[in-house]
């Protein structure tokens, strides 16, 4: 092996105390490239999340990406950008859930329209074709909703234009009543605020009264429009938030770029001052060594060196002022980043609140059907694993529609709140209650032996029957019918729910106010 020859740079002493070695520069450059690469990945995720939803957001993200490409030191942004990345990811999941709910509502409304009798064959074929088409992306989803609305408008027009003598034989009043009940249950499960929420509550009030089939179809169409408007409003709010976040990030990035350039200039200026100071000191030392020599003039040399030192001191003072201004700019940028981080945390909390509300029935404040599906799947897996006794029961209030008709829906809602709370108080901490729809509740009793589950169901029936309900100075007694069953064998949640529902049907047909096991 041949021995390498030292390079001139490594062989010579450093000319200035603050000069960095080439290896240090290489390490800094590598670190800078890694940071920029990380930020490029974040920008890519932003674009993947928001692309195609808003042209302004796409433009701002592209501008932000371009700024990053020209920046050398953006390490101060990385921790805050990580917070934004997580927020956008969570917001994307929230939007995906909202889109899933909208898709479910779309198919429910389409199936409801399919069950309307007397519609032309061509309209039904168009409806079947529409429901069979997958919606890939927001644009296609919106087009599908518009087509469904158009089909509803055609159906309503045909129903209204048809003479009464032709309409009556084709109408299944029981089916229309079930559609109305299901629609008002769905409205109850929604947690939509503002004007759209108020209009949906008005639709629910109408659905609780005796209305014509044509009115049911019209109200269904109106509810679908309101749900679509609320979903679009929520999406616009999210896009505006993301746009504001990106504007702030672009502004901070530009400021940091300028600050970085200023810091580089200051470092070079300091190096120049240090080099001049070193030369001045060397000149003084040199003149002092020549003291007494021929043609030596130390006084003149010292006078010149003193003048040079004064100039250096003034330049150093100016550099300190520039450094103070830079520190103030960096402190301002840090405050902006802190404010931006606080905004994202607030948005995260709001999203979390919306997620919790999504699982609660807004009227009774017990869990809703979506939460029931999640909990039922969880308890089912535990039952499959440990084979402990697991009971599911469906509770229905007897003749509760008469309460709504006699006293009004507001009284009925108040009674539902009281009854839901009473059922909850009869349960153990490990049990679960959800409003299944209308006046029906489902309870889950995991790890409950025969005596425990029998006592719980009997206590629920007795407690509700003895509730001191009084409306318009008239005492009202409400009883419940309960259908209950156990998970066994190769059961899955769907057949167990159907079996409990069959037991409930038997309880109602056997005189109500009783518990039937199946």
Automatic annotation (TrEMBL):
Reactions the enzyme catalyzes: 2 GTP = 3',3'-c-di-GMP + 2 diphosphate
Keyword Coiled coil: yes
Lineage: Bacteria, Pseudomonadati, Pseudomonadota, Gammaproteobacteria, Vibrionales
Entry coiled-coil feature ranges: 302-343
InterPro entries per the UniProt record, alphabetical: DGCcoil, Diguanylate_Cyclase, GGDEF_dom, Nucleotide_cyclase, Rev_trsase/Diguanyl_cyclase
Enzyme class, UniProt record, top EC level: transferase
Annotated EC: 2.7.7.65
Keywords noted in UniProt: Coiled coil
Statement: the UniProt record of this protein carries the keyword Coiled coil: yes
Protein name stated in the entry: diguanylate cyclase
Region (Disordered): 1-23
SUPFAM superfamilies in the record: Nucleotide cyclase (SSF55073)
Ranges for domain GGDEF: 388-518
CDD domains linked to this entry: GGDEF (cd01949)
Signal peptide: none
């Amino acid at each position: 092996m041949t021995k390498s020859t030292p390079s001139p740079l490594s062989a010579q002493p450093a000319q200035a105390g603050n000069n960095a070695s080439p290896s240090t520069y290489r390490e800094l450059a590598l670190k800078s490239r890694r940071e920029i690469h990380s930020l490029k990945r974040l920008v890519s995720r932003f674009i993947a999340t928001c692309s195609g939803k808003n042209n302004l957001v796409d433009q701002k993200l592209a501008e932000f990406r371009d700024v990053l490409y020209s920046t050398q030191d953006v390490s101060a942004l990385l921790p805050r950008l990580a917070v934004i990345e997580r927020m956008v990811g969570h917001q994307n999941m929230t939007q995906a859930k909202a889109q899933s709910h909208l898709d479910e509502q779309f198919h429910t409304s389409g199936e409801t329209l399919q069950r309307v009798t007397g519609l032309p064959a061509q309209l039904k074929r168009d409806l079947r074709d529409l429901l069979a088409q997958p919606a890939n992306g927001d644009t296609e989803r919106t087009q599908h909703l518009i087509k469904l609305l158009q089909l509803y408008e055609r159906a309503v027009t045909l129903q209204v234009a048809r003479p009464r003598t032709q309409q009556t034989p084709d109408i299944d009043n029981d089916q229309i009543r079930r559609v109305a009940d299901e629609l008002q249950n769905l409205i109850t499960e929604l947690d939509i605020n503002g004007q759209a929420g108020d209009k949906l509550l008005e639709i629910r009030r109408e659905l609780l009264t005796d209305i014509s089939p044509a009115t049911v179809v019209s109200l269904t169409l109106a509810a679908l429009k309101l749900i679509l408007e609320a979903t679009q409003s929520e999406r616009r709010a999210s896009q505006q938030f993301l746009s504001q976040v990106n504007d702030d990030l672009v502004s901070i990035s530009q400021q940091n770029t300028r600050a970085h350039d200023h810091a580089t200039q200051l470092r070079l200026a300091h190096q120049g001052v240090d080099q001049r100071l070193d030369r001045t000191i060397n000149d003084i030392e040199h003149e002092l060594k020549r003291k007494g020599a021929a043609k030596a003039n130390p006084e003149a040399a010292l006078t010149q060196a003193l003048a040079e030192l004064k100039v250096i001191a003034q330049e150093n003072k100016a550099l300190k002022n520039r450094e103070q201004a830079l520190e103030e700019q960096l402190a301002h940028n840090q405050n902006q980043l802190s404010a931006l981080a606080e905004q994202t945390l607030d948005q995260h909390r709001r999203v979390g609140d919306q997620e919790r509300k999504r699982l609660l029935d807004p009227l009774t404040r017990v869990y809703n059907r979506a939460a029931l599906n999640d909990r039922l799947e969880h308890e089912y897996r535990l039952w499959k694993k440990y084979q402990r006794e697991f009971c599911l029961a469906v509770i229905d209030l007897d003749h509760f529609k008469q309460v709504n008709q006699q006293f009004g829906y507001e009284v009925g809602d108040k009674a539902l709140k009281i009854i839901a709370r009473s059922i909850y108080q009869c349960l153990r901490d490990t049990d679960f209650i959800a409003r299944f729809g209308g006046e029906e509740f489902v309870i889950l009793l995991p790890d409950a032996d025969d005596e425990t589950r029998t006592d719980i169901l009997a206590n629920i029936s007795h407690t509700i029957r003895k509730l001191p309900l009084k409306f318009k100075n008239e005492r009202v007694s409400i009883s419940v019918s309960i259908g209950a069953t156990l998970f066994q064998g190769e059961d899955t949640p769907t057949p167990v729910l159907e079996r409990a529902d069959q037991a409930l049907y038997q309880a109602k047909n056997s005189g109500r106010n009783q518990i039937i096991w199946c």
